[in-house]
Amino acid sequence: MCGNNDLFYLGFDLSTQQLKCLAINESLRIVHTETISFDEELPQYETNKGVYTEGDAIQSPVAMWLEALDLLFSKFTQHGFDLGKVKAVSGSCQQHGSVYWTQKADELLKGLKSSKGSLVEQLSPEAFSRATAPNWQDHSTGKQCREFEEAVGGPQELAHITGSRAHFRFTGTQILKIAEEESEAYAKTDTVSLVSSFLASVLSGQLTSIEEAEACGMNLYDVSKRKYDSKLLNLVDDDRKSIERKLRFSPIHCDEPVRLGSMCSYFVDKYGFSKDCAVYPFTGDNLATICSLPLEKNDVLVSLGTSTTILLITDQYHPSADYHLFIHPTLPNHYMGMICYCNGALAREKIRDHLNGGPTNDWTPFNDAVNDTTLDNDDEIGVYFPLGEIVPSVPAVYKRAKFDPSSGHIKQFVDAFADERHDAKNIVESQALSCRVRISPLLTSTVPVEGLTKDLNVRFDYDDIPLTEYYGRRPRRAFFVGGASKNNAIVNKFIQVLGATKGNYRLETPNSCALGGCYKAIWSHKYHEKQTTARFDHFLSEKFPWDEVEHIRDSDNASWHHYNEKILPLSELEASLPKH
Ligand code: XUL
């Protein structure tokens, strides 16, 4: 089962502040890691945290990424790692960013030679019509976002087509802005890559198309029809053929691994790669994260960081303007749902500090309140959004209410509960419950619902579905990551509310993006070479280093049922909030 542990697979992670690369062996163990930190190791680009910020516009220099790549491979060889034993590479890149190539690019890529100088010397500036790539933190496309949504009838309609409503960072709105404001650069652009297809192009020495899962981060791709939407393309460019050509027509579908080519001779000659080393499509960082675990349909990954992010695997295309759906990068007919909340750790910390009488890092009083089963909050519901929230889409607001537990309807709004310990318990409950109700429509694993007395429709955002649906749908497994996943009080509450039927796990994920890239590389290669016929999740599950994952505990049914009672009141409370 271990195979030949002298053969390696590389997974890159080109993120905002650094380029990282991991090598794994056939047992999926990490055998080598190298990282280039942009600000520190390439100071000549004068980036701050990897980017240039000018008002709302945030960009990264493309030449810096090329230099980082050369530097990275030099480190591998300096440290004695034999790149000649690498069988295949894939990877993860920051999503949404775009690289603009000139007509000369393909020829320059195909002509890359180690004898002709470094990557940056051979490609920059001639290969690029813009020296920089818009970064996912860019906020400068408000006008273009409105145009996108108006073109198709509104945010929900755009989400229906492309998997997401319009977002500043999504590539379609970024390209439109460049077409409008930098007509010369746009006219000189022959090909637009995402960061992921840019890196795959450099490594394989030819322009490659965009990977399909990544194309779902552009607001341009019709997810159901699996092709770019003509109306949206026309919005970007009156000459639809021209933008189609720039995007290299169709993305690379994710149904089966597609071998893009071999590592180009530049890397073979300079760093000793084998000329057979295969390059497989790169994907986005969140998409790579789900590939770092053997996640199956109905599994959820809960990231309890500064913000709370949920990634889940679903076969339901049930889009919403409040979250994102992407085609799954390795499982055919599946999607990745991504729900991002603004108010995660920060909102909890504010209550922690109130309880402590000032800012300290002591979570004891907060955790005690969350764990306190004698603290009766069975008729209380509260939302705590010190920052404007994405889900639901509302401005910053705190609101508390008392409800009638027998009917579920709100009786009165209150300024405060009995004391602030109630806020500690209520914030964790309502954060977890918000996750639970938003993932329900995307789940297909159901449990029998007993003793249901109310069967009415309950609305959250764009979903108006029977309460029974919320009662019956439960995730399969829940994986907790991020800073607050180490806090047992918070995690246990999430476990109670989410009610995963096949267990709850906790893990550290310092490398999840690059590791997802490694796993994608090894599985793609073995599948392509007919050494396995297993689907990605099964292949990974069999070989997965489970010893690195902590099984926390199973969910208990009683707690899960208990939170059924708070679904209707939460929906009523959210309906009462001011809108953006
Ligand atoms: C996702 C997103 C970020 C970047 C970070 O939509 O914008 O997660 O991909 O690198």
TrEMBL record:
Coiled coil: none annotated. Residues 135-241 form the Carbohydrate kinase FGGY N-terminal domain. InterPro entries: ATPase_NBD, D-XK_euk, FGGY_N. Keywords: ATP-binding, Carbohydrate metabolism, Kinase, Nucleotide-binding, Transferase, Xylose metabolism. Gene3D superfamilies: 3.30.420.40. It comes from the Eukaryota. It catalyses: D-xylulose + ATP = D-xylulose 5-phosphate + ADP + H(+). GO terms for cellular component: cytosol. GO terms for molecular function: ATP binding; D-xylulokinase activity. One of its GO terms (biological process) is D-xylose metabolic process. It is an enzyme of class 2 (transferase). Its EC number is 2.7.1.17. Highly specific D-xylulose kinase which participates in the catabolism of xylose. Xylose is a major component of hemicelluloses such as xylan. Most fungi utilize D-xylose via three enzymatic reactions, xylose reductase (XR), xylitol dehydrogenase (XDH), and xylulokinase, to form xylulose 5-phosphate, which enters pentose phosphate pathway. Belongs to the FGGY kinase family. This is Xylulose kinase. It comes from Zygosaccharomyces mellis. The gene is XKS1.
